[in-house]
Amino acid sequence: GWLEDIFHYFFKVAWHGESAALNIIGTGENIVPTIHAKDLSNIVVSVADSKPKTRYILAVDDSMNSMTDIITSISKSLGTGNVMNISREEALLLPEITQRIFDIISVNLRMEGTWIKEGAKFEWTSETGIIENMPAVIDEYKRSRGLLPIRICVLGPPASGKSLVASQLCQHYKLHHLKIADVIQEAIEKLEKQASRAEAEDGEEGDDEAAQQAQETLDLLNESKQENNDRYEDQYIIQFFTEKLLSMPCQNQGFVLDGFPKTYSQAKDLFGNKEEPEDEDAPKLEYNTKLMPEAVISLDGDDEFLKKRVMNLPELVVAGTHNTEDLFLKRLTEFRMVNTDDQTVLNYFDELEVHPEHLDITADTSSNMSQVVQKVVKVVGAPRNYGPTEEERLELERIEMEKRMKKEAQEKLELQRKEEEEKKETKRRKDEWAARVKEVKEQEEEVLQAQSYPLRNYLMKHVMPTLNQGLIEVCKVRPEDAIDYLAEYLFEHNPQVD
Length: 498
Description:
alpha/beta, two-stranded parallel sheet, 57% helix, elongated
């Protein structure tokens, strides 16, 4: 129950649906005793309250299921419905099956809980065992691990980018991309495969009846296609989509409806609730909760924008598609015609309080409509799955490492570029400063030199003759106080003193 432990590997593989069959270890004939986690908790509480004299108590349910029975039930209720036997050695090579899980799942014990039948008093959750209660166990498992399906419907006029947005949403959330042509082709191939079994010689009676019904359906489809201008009637398309949406992969992971339903009546026939409630007093829901999208996205764009978008497409891309000029205009006209009155496909969702999210594609400037996708992701929320696989995780880590190394290399180059620019700028400033200092010095020298000419003339005319004679006289006489002698000489021989 709940998250599951021993059986988690089998639940996980079945939920993913990527393996053709679930593995049964060995022959699978060993009896595996089980009990629901909630029942075990109740038994522990009952033992604590009643304090029985019995020293050993076996906590098991009434089932005597073999490993094959349990794994087959998991596969049919959650996966493809197929199982295959592998050897014990092969099982031990699987990284998900630890030695502990291997030992427990390989036990072969027939056990009966005597005391809990007589002495324990509590309300059982799964008294008859895991197989009898598999739907409830799977529901617990999904809710406990947050594995709830995401259902999205992307609608819009031709060339609005529905398939591009849907494919990116499927990649982000790991959902199934449902396009009209693909769903029809898959259903036809399935019918043809069933019809071909009628030709097999060793076919059983049940297979013959199914093959005959498949062939009759194919005949009706071909007849309908011929009578409706090479198109299938809505009733068949609705049937194909209903079968696809109720398939295990779509019920487990979820889906993205790409451009379907197109009309109010198609939406009502596809999502309308055709089942009566189990409780007669309970009100009947107007829609099937297993099929109804939780998010309806409407990509809005005017005709001029859509026409320009198609006209700008390369011829190689347009060739052989519905986006040639004539076909595109015809499809656009048909779309506008069925979306003018009150009974549009968007009105159907509005009436059921599943309000569409309108996104203006003309405001998206990205090359792959990533801005629109991000808005849808914000509306839908976080993924509800197991997250990336080990291979995907390693790939994401590799991509992240490459991005980080590229970013570091760019930052290093940018840092080197800035350092070089700073060095050049520093050198330029130093050279500029040196040039300015040199220029200032030269200007100062010129000013000093210009100012020194009149002073020199003055000294040479009035000072230097008398001073030179005084110095000569000092040298001749050599007095003890040469400075005082020179001063007296200059005072006595001053030409300005009479």
